[in-house]
Specification:
mainly alpha; 2 domains; globular; 5peptide_repeat; single chain; 267 residues; binds iron/sulfur cluster; Pectate Lyase C-like; Pentapeptide repeat-containing protein
């Protein structure tokens, strides 16, 4: 599977995230709904009836969401199996398979990035080995992927990501130490943060304008409304499309090839 296959393709999906996910108004979705129930804006053809208005309706949850390509993968299988999904309800088994696929696609996304970042021979071999195992797992029928499959893969991938992060940090980190886990609205403007570890940190509304973010680890961090104007993110670690969609940037923000520039960043 290529990095491009891990990008969301709503046009090749039966609106699975609009059915399978639990979501709330507070997170920028149109309504509070339980998992398995179709969003009331999803039409019979599995298309969003207000897609062109998501921006003006400020539905950030819908605009920012990313399934790592699990939607089109699962939809292709559903089609092949001739499974009928009703307008109102999603079958529990199909929903569970979709959730499992999303987790595996996310792991694959991170491993593919890791491969691009490391030069160390032994780490390259281990990462490639894990990547091959994951790709074999993803060739299974989605309904045959088990919970233990996911857990084993999750632990192995996390182990690799930890080693890659440690290796890169040792090589590139400067003297800036990041202490704490919550940095709501903090300004890091023009700071040299090369190699810093922001993984799993709350960075909502932080200002990174003109900062040096080379080799900064963003694994699982919450960057909603963080400002990346005039920043080069091409060598930052473990960014996802969801993180980029939920953050701010401008024309001068540089992104790696595998991330798509949000339309609002073209100013
Ligand atoms: S508003 Fe549209 S994109 Fe958002 S959940 Fe509903 S159908 Fe999906």
């Amino acid at each position: 599977m290529e990095m491009k296959d891990l990008r969301i393709q709503c046009e090749n999906c039966f609106g699975l995230c609009c059915r399978a996910l639990y979501f709330s108004k507070m997170d920028g979705f149109p309504e509070n709904k339980r998992a398995g129930k179709a969003c009331s804006y999803l039409c019979a053809a599995s298309r969003c009836s207000i897609y062109s208005q998501l921006g003006e309706k400020h539905l950030k949850g819908c605009m920012n969401y990313d399934c790592f390509g699990a939607g089109q993968h699962m939809s292709a299988w559903i089609k092949q199996q001739n499974i009928y999904i009703t307008d109102k309800q999603m079958d529990t088994a199909v929903m569970e398979s979709f959730h499992k696929l999303m987790k595996l696609h996310q792991q694959l996304w991170y491993l593919k990035q890791a491969i691009l970042l490391i030069e160390e021979h032994h780490l390259h071999i281990d990462t490639t080995g894990e990547l091959e195992k994951l790709e074999i797992l993803l060739r299974k029928e989605p309904d045959k992927i088990t919970k233990p499959d996911i857990e084993i893969s999750h632990d192995a991938v996390n182990g690799i990501l930890r080693r890659v992060s440690a290796c890169i940090q040792t090589k590139y980190a400067n003297d800036t130490h990041i202490i704490g886990s919550s940095f709501l609205g903090k300004s890091f403007k023009k700071q040299s943060l090369k190699g810093c570890d922001f993984s799993m940190k709350l960075l909502i509304g932080c200002d990174f304008t003109d900062a040096d973010l080379a080799y900064v680890n963003f694994l699982g961090s919450d960057v909603r409304d963080a400002n990346f104007s005039n920043v080069d993110l091409r060598c930052s670690l473990f960014l996802t499309q969801f993180q980029i969609n939920s953050a701010k940037g401008n024309k001068a923000t540089m992104l790696p090839d595998y991330l798509k520039r949000p339309r609002t960043w073209n100013k």
